Amino acid sequence: MQNQKNTVFVGKKGVMSYITAVVKIINDGNSEVIIKARGKLISRAVDVAEIVRSRFMPNLIVDKIETSTETLQSEQGGETKVSAIEIKLKKEI
Amino acid sequence: MQNQKNTVFVGKKGVMSYITAVVKIINDGNSEVIIKARGKLISRAVDVAEIVRSRFMPNLIVDKIETSTETLQSEQGGETKVSAIEIKLKKEI
User: Fold this and answer.
1) Using the beta-carbon criterion (under 8 Å), do B67 and A85 form an inter-chain contact?
2) Could you tell me how far CA A12 lies from the centroid of its own chain?
């Protein structure tokens, strides 16, 4: 299991909120950060990673990107499958 | 450069169109296929890869996922930056 405090879950706020969260985690002394998202928010997670690296922290590299399928319980009791992504950024040594 | 004939560009059609295209490339005898998308379509590309692997071709593995930033020329002559993804699926040996 990844350390939750190094993880940013991308939701429906603007991209900048998540960029700020990623930058703060690194500036707080962590050497890596994990950006997670599900469903349509996956593209926003990629935007966050790309913008952090190109504009704010060029010393971060993409260490690993993984995709998966998660099963969600719907309110009606059924199940829905949704794609998910985890992007791990790491300080270049 | 990747071989274009092994590449599926995910656009605005339904997910199933791209799933079919990926399956066909492998069934035609290729051992790998690359799924590409930009912007909001990135999440659809992840769906395509996940559904192909979980429902149709469990012998495929995710070989590599890369993200990048592409610069597009807008019709007004300006430039827009957009995130992109490339997912490479490969036959497990």
Assistant:
1) no
2) 13
Provide the ipTM: 0.88
- Our CA angle for A88, A27, B82, nearest 5°, is 50
Q: Does B33 touch chain A (CB under 8 A)?
A: no
Query: A52: burial class by Cβ within 10 Å (0-12, 13-18, 19+)?
Result: buried
Residue from the list B41, B47, B67 with its beta carbon closest to the beta carbon of A50: B67
- CA separation (Å) from B61 to A71, B41, B53? 20, 21, 7
Q: Are A62 and B67 an interchain contact pair (Cβ–Cβ within 8 Å)?
A: yes
State the nearest Cα–Cα gap between B30 and chain A, in angstroms: 22
For the entire predicted model, the pTM comes to 0.91
Which residue out of B10, B43, B51 would a mutagenesis test of the A interface target, given it has the greatest number of A Cβ atoms within 10 Å? B43
Q: What is the pLDDT along chain A (93 residues), one digit of tens a residue?
A: 455 789 999 999 999 999 999 999 999 999 999 999 999 999 999 999 999 999 999 999 999 999 999 998 888 889 999 999 999 999 987
